[in-house]
Design goal:
The chain is mainly alpha-helical. Helix content is about 55%, strand content about 5%. The strands form 2 sheets. A 3-stranded antiparallel β-sheet has the order 3-4-5. Strands 1-2 form a two-stranded antiparallel ribbon. Helix 11 packs across helix 18. The relative contact order is 0.11.
């Protein structure tokens, strides 16, 4: 461990994160089982990438598109291949905790969360339950929302729990003062045993570190936008089929399996090289523990079980939380948009937690663009006019009147 930390220039916690993300292969020391050995090639590769990342241009690109988080957070991280909320194992937490408990933990609130305050609001009950109603409620609240700046944390916590309550009601949860999983079960006409599954699923989905939706919510929060605006920004990003609505793609896949059979569907996807939605996760090379925890609590339909087993056997990829969520909705015949509604409501807790945490940072999040388009016409004409004079004078040094020490500055400026 000490040698790996020295070569990489990081703390032990970062090495553990590399291992959990599959970037660093680890095995027990055969001489001393209390120690771990790390694959030398993996350490060397990480060290090389870190060195390259110190260059300004590479660092700017990796900050947005690399795999390492660029914003410090105390909300969620991954240890030994499992998500943790403020240091607590999220999978273990989901065995007994409610979404209200998870919100108190993630928001670092003094009092338990209560999502019933605004549940009976006319705004929350407008229109047919579902995605349109949910986004309409948030859009309306965003239009007249107050900035987060200059307000006490306990006041923002109260507003945040009202937002989650209204969103849940918009997605079909029955108004009332019970915990959200019971309200969803009643609204979707499900028995108490299914309510327990909804409880588990929502705690597992509450947060997942710096996802694209969390990053967008933080950007909005950094500008002083209202809490409903921050939440709306995050949820519109979450709605993408490559993010929070991935369970919708899995539901479509399950429909194909029910119509055509698992053999034909698997053969078609594998023969054409099409990706199978819901299988594999870059953060969980050994399988998504959230999916395993949820799938262990109920038995999906036989056709879905066979399909999951066949895909896993042929690809080596384990089902992720999107498969578990889609299987839950399919098995208990919940509303068509229930998977996204459950995900969006649960993740709203995490998005609001990220928004609240960002308020402690005074700077506005403002990345810089690296222009790669065509040169403006005026600059192009100037470059053409300068080129002949430059080539006719000197080719082995800077133009007359300019010191050699300043030559690299001009070269660097023109490249940027």
């Amino acid at each position: 461990m000490d040698e790996a930390c020295r070569l990489l220039g990081v703390q032990p916690q970062t090495v553990y994160a590399y291992v959990s993300r599959g970037k660093l292969e680890v095995m027990p020391d055969p001489v001393d089982t209390r120690r771990s050995l790390y694959r030398a090639e993996d350490v060397a590769g990480l060290a090389k990438r870190k060195q390259a990342g110190r260059k300004h241009e590479t660092l700017a690109a990796n900050t947005l598109f690399g795999s390492e988080p660029s914003i410090p957070t105390a909300l969620c991280s991954f240890f030994r291949g499992r998500p943790h909320y403020r240091g607590q194992d999220a999978v273990n937490l989901a065995r007994t905790a409610t979404l209200e408990d998870a919100a108190q933990l993630l928001w670092d609130a003094e009092q338990p969360a209560d999502f019933s305050d605004a549940a009976s609001s006319p705004t929350a009950r407008s229109g047919k339950p579902g995605r349109i109603a949910g986004f309409t409620v948030l859009a309306s609240l965003s239009a007249g929302g107050h900035s987060t700046r200059g307000r006490l944390t306990r006041v923002l916590h109260h507003e945040a729990q009202g937002l989650v309550g209204q969103l849940a009601t918009a997605f079909g949860a029955q108004p009332g003062r019970q915990p959200l999983h019971l309200r969803f079960a009643k609204g979707w006409k499900q028995p108490p045993e299914v309510a327990e599954l909804l409880r588990t699923a929502m705690v597992l989905l509450a947060d997942h570190e710096l996802t694209s939706s969390a990053f967008v919510a933080r950007i909005a929060a950094s500008t002083g936008a209202s809490l409903p605006a921050c939440l709306l920004a995050g949820l519109t990003t979450l709605s993408g089929p490559l993010h929070g609505d991935a369970s919708g793609r899995v539901q479509s896949l399950f429909s194909e399996v029910e119509r055509l059979g698992d053999d034909k569907v698997v053969a078609h996807y594998l023969s054409t090289g099409l990706p199978l939605a819901g299988f594999g996760h870059h953060l969980y090379p050994d399988g998504d523990p959230r999916a395993a925890a949820l799938l262990a609590l109920f038995e999906p339909p036989d056709v879905i079980v066979r399909f999951i087993e066949k895909v896993t056997a042929l690809t080596g990829l384990q089902p992720n939380i999107d498969v578990a969520l889609a299987a839950l909705v399919a098995h208990y015949r919940m509303p068509a948009d229930a998977a996204f509604g459950l995900f969006a409501t649960a993740r709203s807790v995490g998005l609001l937690a990220h928004s609240l945490e960002q308020l402690g940072v005074p700077q506005v999040i403002r990345p810089r663009g690296r222009y790669v388009g065509p040169m403006p016409e005026a600059e192009a004409a100037r470059a053409v006019a300068i080129a002949p004079r430059s080539s006719s004078r000197r080719t082995d040094g800077p133009p007359p009147g300019q010191s050699a020490a300043r030559a690299p500055d001009r070269k660097r400026a023109s490249a940027e």
